[in-house]
Amino acid sequence: MWDMTESRTAVVGPGAIGGLVAAMLQRAGHDVVVVARAGTARHVTEHGLDVTTDEFGSWHAPLTAVTEVPRGARVVVAVKAEGLADAVRLVEHAEPAEVVALLNGLDHVDALRAALPGVRVVGATIAGETLRTGAGGPGPALVRHRGTLLRVVVPDDAADLGVVTALRDTPIEVLTGGTEAEVLWKKLRFLAPLALLTSTWGSGIGEALTRDDGLTAGLLAEIAATATAEGVPTTGEELRGILDGFPATMRSSLQADVEAGHVGELDAIGGAVRRRAADHRIAAPMLDDLLGRIAHRAAEIGAGAQA
Ligand SMILES: NC(=O)c1ccc[n+]([C@@H]2O[C@H](COP(=O)([O-])OP(=O)(O)OC[C@H]3O[C@@H](n4cnc5c(N)ncnc54)[C@H](OP(=O)(O)O)[C@@H]3O)[C@@H](O)[C@H]2O)c1
């Protein structure tokens, strides 16, 4: 493990979000490494990443990749929930200066915090449609950002963190959004129904919202009651308004995972809401129903692919 100063940033998980954030920090002149599994680390070090965006230019990012978090670094965690346990193991022995997590969901923040007593760990959200392809191919992996939206929201008390200050040097819009619970729930309250409904019905959100009106209304009411109990007052009607405002064709990354035969972030998104509902003794039969249906659908598709 090599040492580095606190001004260096280590991005764990150079996928869509981690690759984009690392490339943007590097382009803004920051000292950044990505932390990846051995194969990915070799590939990134050898080829770098090619970044293509509609709004922020396109460039080659000659990133350095390592397999351990450099001691004392500021850390951005950008794995998916499936990689969280490994990310925690990577970060916990590195005495990081601070950790900012960009995953969707809630529970990852508790897992990181439990492993890093005394370290500033912050849950933040990122919005922006990004995909990484071509890792392991003959040339650089490609990070593709579509559209104009690229925004990180951090809790008010994280505005002065080193990572957050560095992100302000990039084209990423950086906002503060209240407490950490408010930041995470303001996203999860609409992300969860978007992900669960599109994954259940295998359609865009427009059709998914109208396939079963009772189920949709019940689900939104359960999620709204849970968000309200967690400190973000909202109603099912408000959530319906947010979802109706999305393009009808919008799909979710959970849906893509389910349609590839695995459950992806089902537990990190839907399971997390279900657990918080239980904490507040909020009955959640619609959530239970959809969590079961989606797991079943993923298993069936997965089994079909293997047959
Ligand atoms: N993509 C978006 O548009 C978007 C938007 C908002 C929020 N988010 C959220 O951001 C988070 C990251 O999503 P993403 O789309 O960037 O995912 P992704 O493209 O799949 O990237 C995940 C990264 O984590 C790495 N990883 C996985 N397991 C690992 C492990 N055990 N050890 C180290 N690295 C590991 C992957 O490694 P390899 O490189 O080896 O595959 C990959 O680099 C998710 O919580 C997602 O919900 C995504």
Strand-pairing-aware structural class:
alpha/beta
What small-molecule ligands were found? NADP nicotinamide-adenine-dinucleotide phosphate
The CATH superfamily title of the largest domain: NAD(P)-binding Rossmann-like Domain
Radius of gyration (CA) equals 19 Å
The low-confidence parts are none
Instruction: Indicate the CATH architecture of the largest domain.
Output: 3-Layer(aba) Sandwich
Residues in helices, as a percent range: 40-55%
Number of strands: 11
β-strand amount: 15-25%
The number of domains: 2
Largest sheet: 6 strands, parallel
The CATH first-level class of the largest domain comes to Alpha Beta
Number of helices: 12
Assembly state (oligomeric): single chain
Order of helices and strands: EHEHEEEEHEHEEEHEHHHHHHH
Domain Ketopantoate reductase C-terminal: 183-293
GO cellular component, one term: cytoplasm
Organism: Promicromonospora citrea
Protein name: 2-dehydropantoate 2-reductase
What does this structure look like?
This is 2-dehydropantoate 2-reductase. By secondary structure, the protein is α/β, with parallel strands linked by helices. The chain folds into 2 domains: 170 residues, 3-Layer(aba) Sandwich (Rossmann fold), CATH 3.40.50; 120 residues, N-(1-d-carboxylethyl)-l-norvaline Dehydrogenase, domain 2 (Orthogonal Bundle). The protein is built from 12 helices and 11 strands. The longest helix is centred in the middle third of the chain and has 22 residues. 47% of the residues are buried. The model has no long low-confidence stretch (mean pLDDT 96). The site of NADP nicotinamide-adenine-dinucleotide phosphate has 27 residues, from helix 1, helix 3 and strand 9.
